Amino acid sequence: QVQLVESGGGSVQAGGSLRLSCAASKRTFVTYAMGWFRQAPGKEREIVAAISRSGDTMYYTDSMKGRFTISRDKDKNTVYLQMNSLKPEDTAVYYCAAAWVAQTSVATTSEGDYANWGQGTQVTVSS
To answer: What mean pLDDT value characterizes the chain?
Structure first.
């Protein structure tokens, strides 16, 4: 098990930016693929972005491409989600999650692969 703690959420106007951080509790952080998910009120949780163990493979949901960037810092056991050009429809609770995967270059997008979850951080974008 790895403990995950998100931070960086908040309120911003449309067009603004936020950077979410997710700190992992274990040095074995490098053995986990990492993902960011979000859940808006009344909607199912959806994947936002994922990054492989090695950090060389990233996945983005189409609506986030070009606006969001996922990255990881193995020395700080932290994964980031830089969010630019935010829209009101980006309003949601954002969750960080970790998936143990054997392959170093796989950015898994299957929610079922993620066994470790953070508590979530609220992002609110006003128009």
So the answer is: 95
